[in-house]
Design a protein that fits this description.
The protein has 238 residues and is α/β, with parallel strands linked by helices. It has one domain (4-136, 178-226): 3-Layer(aba) Sandwich (Undecaprenyl pyrophosphate synthetase). It has helices at 18-25, 29-49, 69-85, 87-92, 108-121, 137-153, 164-168, 216-227; strands at residues 10-14, 54-61, 96-100, 128-135, 181-184, 203-206. Strand 3 (96-100), helix 5 (108-121) and strand 4 (128-135) form a beta-alpha-beta unit. Helix 1 packs across helix 2 (29-49).
């Protein structure tokens, strides 16, 4: 078991493999998404118990709209149901819910429940649970650049003042720490347009385990692997 002082402060997860898990079991794809919610609940609760500062989950990318209307509709209904059903879990674990992405494009009923859950949890002092919804890493950088360019044009900001910290302030993740550990389930080894700016120095952990099967013991394996690594951030360890 990873020691507390070796735990990442911020974990980001690409929850991949729902559809492939369902096909392997002989189910429809949507069954994989349903089972994946159980993984979300268990991993979120476990991270909160371990006093992880933030857990960011890649819940819906801005490219997921390309899927069939039936699947997208199901995902939106499931998201709404999740927001309502998990308010008790969020409260019991003192979790603050936040989001990143172009959430204004989500269906109105989903936005309503999202707003309620965020409002109810805004004063919680425990872990931040951040859902990436209608999110894309390139889109985030483009949106940040547009806002920054507008401030330069309006005289709010001088070009020579722009640095990493200033640019970070225009990102969706402004005010959040960068992930220390990025986990991807499902066997693929790529970041898939997720937190492109923020994971520059994150430790990466890939597992063949499909997300619907990812449980506490798999999280512990990722944390134990993380604890063995030396993080250099471009420098050298003396």
């Amino acid at each position: 078991m990873a020691k507390k002082n070796n735990l990442p402060k911020h974990i980001a997860i690409i929850m991949d493999g729902n559809g492939r898990w369902a096909r392997r079991k002989g189910f429809m794809r949507v069954r994989g998404h349903e089972e994946g919610v159980n993984s979300v609940r268990e991993i979120t609760t476990e991270c909160a118990k371990k006093n992880i500062g933030q857990l960011t989950l890649y819940a819906f990318s801005n490219e997921n709209w390309k899927r069939s209307k039936t699947e997208v509709g199901f995902l939106m209904r499931m998201l709404k149901k999740f927001l309502i059903a998990e308010r008790g879990t969020i409260k019991d674990n003192d979790i603050m819910l936040r989001t990143i992405g172009r959430t204004e494009a989500l269906p109105d009923d989903v936005k309503k429940e999202l707003s309620i859950s965020m409002e109810e949890s805004k004063d919680n002092k425990g872990m931040i649970l951040c859902l990436a919804l209608n999110y894309g890493g390139r889109t985030e950088i483009i949106d940040a650049t547009k806002k920054l360019a507008a401030d330069v044009k309006n005289g709010v900001l001088a070009i020579n003042d722009i640095n990493d910290d200033i640019f970070k302030g225009y990102m969706y993740t402004s005010g959040m720490s960068d992930p220390d550990l990025l986990i991807r389930t499902g066997g693929e080894m790529r970041v898939s347009n997720f937190l492109l700016w923020e994971v520059s120095y994150a430790e990466l952990f890939f597992t063949p385990v499909y997300w619907p099967e990812f449980r506490k013991e798999h999280l512990e394996k990722a944390l134990s692997d993380y604890a063995k690594r030396e993080r250099r951030f471009g420098g050298l360890i003396e």
